[in-house]
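User: Hi! Is it possible to get a structure for several chains at once, not just one? Here's what I have:
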Amino acid sequence: MLLTRLKAGGPAIAKQGILVAFIVFMIAFSLMSDRFLSADNIMSVFRQSAIIGVMAIGVTIVVIGGNLDLSVGSMLSFATVLVVDLHDKIGPELAIPVMIMATLCLGAINGFLIGILRLNSLIVTLGMLSAIQGLVLIYSGGQNVDIADQSGTWFAVFGRGAVFGIATPIIIFLGLALIFHVIMTTMPFGRRVHAVGGNPTASVFSGIPRSRIVFMTYLISALCVAIAAIILGSRVMGSQNNVGQGYELQVLAAVILGGTSLLGGSGSILRTVLGVLMLAFIQNGLILMGQPYYTQWLVTWAVIIVAVWLDVAAKRGRLFSPIA
Amino acid sequence: MRNSMRLLLASCGTLALAGAASADTVRIGITQNNVGIDSYQTTYERAFIEAADANPDVEVIVLDAGGDVARQISQMQDLIQQNVDAIIVWPTDGQALVPAVRNAHREGVPVIVTNSNIAEAGMDFIAAFSGPNNIQQGIYSAEMMCEALDGEGQIVQITGMPGYTTAIERQQGFDDRLAELCPGVTQLDIQPGDWNRERAQRTMETLLTRFDNIDGVYSGDDNMGVGALNAALAAGRAEGMVFIGATNFAVGYDAMERGEYWGSVYQSPVDDARAALQTALDVLAGEDVPKLNYFDTPKITQENMHEFDRPVF
Amino acid sequence: MANFTQIPLLRWLMRNPIWGFVLIVFIFFSLAADNFFSERNLMNIVVQTSTIGLIALGMTLVMINGNIDLSVGATLALAAAFAVDVQSWAAFATWGNWQILPAVCIALLVGILMGAINGFIVWKTGVDAFIVTLGAMLGIRGLVFVYTGEQSFYAMNFAYSDFSFMTIGPFPVLAVIFAVAVIAVHLLLSRTVHGRNTYAVGGNREAAVNAGIRVGPHMMINFMLIGFLAALSGVLLSTQMGAATPNLGRDYELWVITAVVLGGTKLTGGKGDIIGTLGGVLAIGILRNGMNLMQVPAFYVLVILGSILIAVLFLDKRFNRSADGGLRL
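Assistant: Yes, the chains can be modeled jointly so their relative placement is included. Here is the combined structure:
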């Protein structure tokens, strides 16, 4: 039944594996915990997912361009430590631009090695993951950094503030997602990223400057990390040196869950947002149900595979792989 | 190409010269748990190196296991290889290090365990332990919690990184003592905060949604405790909620001063580091050193906090 | 340049630049670090390398297939937990030292099973191995915590941890096991039908299907092999610790992949060999050991390892380009 439906090209619903899974989960969780669908809880989950979410926007663009970025975890640690440390030294109005510039430099290094020198992105960003973590520790001497006057600084607005009753992190996250969604779907740059990721050789022949496009995707990724760091620094008002450790995989899981293909060339920012929210709701829902923390790892395992499977199955029109 | 080769050889030469040290000093190797994961360990390392530098007869080799047991075992082997006179180890895992310690013992290298102790099975093979008592810190926290709540209430607990000895012991000491001393206090849930303030904040936000009534929060350290406090403040529910941590951090000290944080356990990384080095030196001097050398980690509350300096981490 | 390539050794090094790198760091540390060049330290390096090295052997197979396995660190931890825990099962209480045997067997089977699950999912769903094993990396780690209840297990029997200190002649038993595994996988890859198929499937999957290779089961076998090798690595690591900890093997997948890529295996599949992989794991092992002996501060070790990784990748690309004149991904 399912099979024939998929074969028929599928109604729109089969192509939205992640959306279906998302809705199923929301219903299941709301049946098991009466607090799950409360306005407060939904707001709180959106707020919590903003940091991962903003990073995932940048990584989605990198992945559509046919590459990976595993360095975002360390880069987040770097950017957060920098902005928090500089906050008390030179004030937030200077700390923020300085941090953004420094983070963009790291992105430019990634972009240069992968875009211009054409080195493998998995290994380069893995190397950068280690190198940047070392840099953070050297910079801070391994000490935590804190903002002394937590209530008196306007820096608090990014992580703790609200506009019209909606928390700033949510506005930043969804706003950024919307902007980049528009860029990726309607602007020439977006089309070029898709082209470069989908078929690198053909894109070169059609005159698309592949090196520059890939370089740009890494700058965007770094910019997103910098924005995530502002939210994180402002929310916590302090930072540890390894605060972003492991975020690279959570971000990647969200991007994958959103149906972006690791082969490059296809993917959507809005569906990444769904992926991010889904992971956040799973985490939140399981705690609300009183499950031990490791349950979420098992559930995530199943969800990632099933969601991506449905997605892949819908694309090829049959449930099981044709591989003998 | 040739130039870089020459450069390489030249740097080799310099390093070889620097490596040759005089023979009458004692050489002590230390392998730490995970420097940089929190300020405590970093401050410990700095204090340790300072204390060693101040003593002209001591040369130290400082290594870091990065939280990886296997790497720590390798480092123990590397240290034995370098013929150090003693090894100080801050176990990434009290259980898994027993054979490595036993091996050092066999090779005649005395091992001093610092900060968190090795498992019972390894006690025969170490020269001494020096450090705080993590279980005792959990016990103190339970006693403070009990006192703060007058023996009645509902609390949640935020633990450190799951699967690591320090986190487990601080939880164990707390759980056991609380059940015994204060049966009227119930623990609603225990969730990990991974020694990470943001993570603790996120966990606490969810717990606040789940439970309408939380009277107290116990955290594996103040760093996470302040994360939980931030969550409660943002939700407007911090009033009357009791926050207690198992190790005092500067942020916790400040929050205590503001009256938002109830209490914690005072533990100085500087004392910890100095005690470890001194214990090692005593062992090497052939003195009769007791097996277990706990240094004092007193309770610190809003009332007595001014007897203590603000933690440097 | 042209006359250099006449000398066989140099030509070989040009083709396997990682071994040139191994040679350089080896000479460097021999000169720079006092205790580096000694029989015992070299044995230490081999033993330390064997943990990552065993998994890297399996990863080479999987990556030549055009797949990848990110779940190996978690599989290692799960196998280690079984190896230590099963020994204390009541069923084997009267077996004496023989209780180690069923424990190790079950641990290895668990590894093979995890590999089979990954391989089966990749085969049947057609989802990218990166995604399947990224999920498994979380999930299997979850199983470890479910099984251990987040506690460390330890072996009551000291015979278990004594095993890791045993020697065969002058060689530590762990180094011997690693050497045997290296030779076995090398022969498997270079002398058997399965080995040839491994290259064929990774090089051109359609051609492989047309040639009558059953690609799905073939890939599943390689996943089971890497599961077995990860479990073996976990068992050997747990003998060194006499214990198993739930966080064992975190990040190992990243170092394994790094080592294999340094060894010249292409992430896109179809190319690579065990000799190169051995060079890759030794390069990382020697760097870590040498920097420990030279007391490079931990923060700098991270930066140096990361930079060297990228530098070697860069040099590899240059060398390979000039050596065979073609473009390789």
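The first helix of chain A runs from residue 2 to 7. The longest strand of chain A covers residues 145-146.

User: Great, thank you!
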